[in-house]
Amino acid sequence: MSSTQRTAILTGATSDRGIGLATARRFAREGWGVVVLDLDGEKSAKVAQDIANEFNVPAFGHQIDVADEASVSAAEKAVAAEVATGHLPQVGAVANIAGITSPVPFLETDLALWNKVMAVNATGTYLVTKAFLPAMIEAGWGRIVNMSSVSAQRGGGVFGRVPYSSAKAAILGFTKALAREVAPTGVTVNAITPGAVDTNIRVGSTDEQEAAIARDIPVGRTATTEEIAAVITWLSSEDASYLTGTTVDINGGSHIH
Ligand SMILES: NC(=O)c1ccc[n+]([C@@H]2O[C@H](COP(=O)([O-])OP(=O)(O)OC[C@H]3O[C@@H](n4cnc5c(N)ncnc54)[C@H](O)[C@@H]3O)[C@@H](O)[C@H]2O)c1
């Protein structure tokens, strides 16, 4: 079955310079149907429409708060209705990209920040995966790609302090355990651990902080969103059939282990 007969679900895919939008466009360029899920429903619908127009693929946008079970369930039902009426091909991939950071020193964090960062990054990955996995198991084929971070592996810098690094590390454990459990079903589950990527999530950093980050990267620059999108779509391809439970580092050599 070619990807034109499959739909990729993406969370966190409307941010102008974000990894999610670049990945949605890359899936579309490769012929996938695309579902854009983000906090702002109107913006999600607009981004989906723009993608449909540009790439001539079926696309659908819907509101989601990945940390809220009812919201995730509503989004899943809306997608299932689009599939049932033939507006979208069957679900073949889920890219859990939505995330927020915690750029606060540990002793300045509070429980509310900890809970929020865990909820969006880790619980969101759990809820969205749980909602869309049954359709892929039923189809006997599926790809789940979870967004972790180099912060999970080496501790965070300015953006990846304790709550964020902890949540992104939880995603690695989630990925490995689920990969083993669903391997016989034809669904693969992998994680990626990008280093610094130039997106809006970094807004607020000083030039000095950015220069220090770039100095720490052997290739001498941060990643482009397209470089991350290319790995997510490849992990979602037929070619990646024997990778599951894997963590793919995309960090320009900044963390080699
Ligand atoms: N930029 C980096 O340096 C970097 C490095 C490693 C990992 N990441 C991860 O990549 C992912 C994408 O980040 P980005 O850099 O493109 O940032 P971004 O801020 O541009 O995009 C994040 C997206 O997630 C959405 N989002 C936030 N909370 C949400 C919620 N509760 N429900 C649904 N959507 C929600 C936002 O609206 C936005 O569209 C994040 O998980 C981030 O942690 C980023």
Automatic annotation (TrEMBL):
One of its GO terms (biological process) is monocarboxylic acid metabolic process. SUPFAM superfamilies: NAD(P)-binding Rossmann-fold domains. This is Short-chain dehydrogenase. Belongs to the short-chain dehydrogenases/reductases (SDR) family. Keywords: Oxidoreductase. GO terms for molecular function: oxidoreductase activity. The keyword Oxidoreductase applies. It comes from Sinomonas humi. Pfam families: adh_short_C2. The keyword Ion transport does not apply.
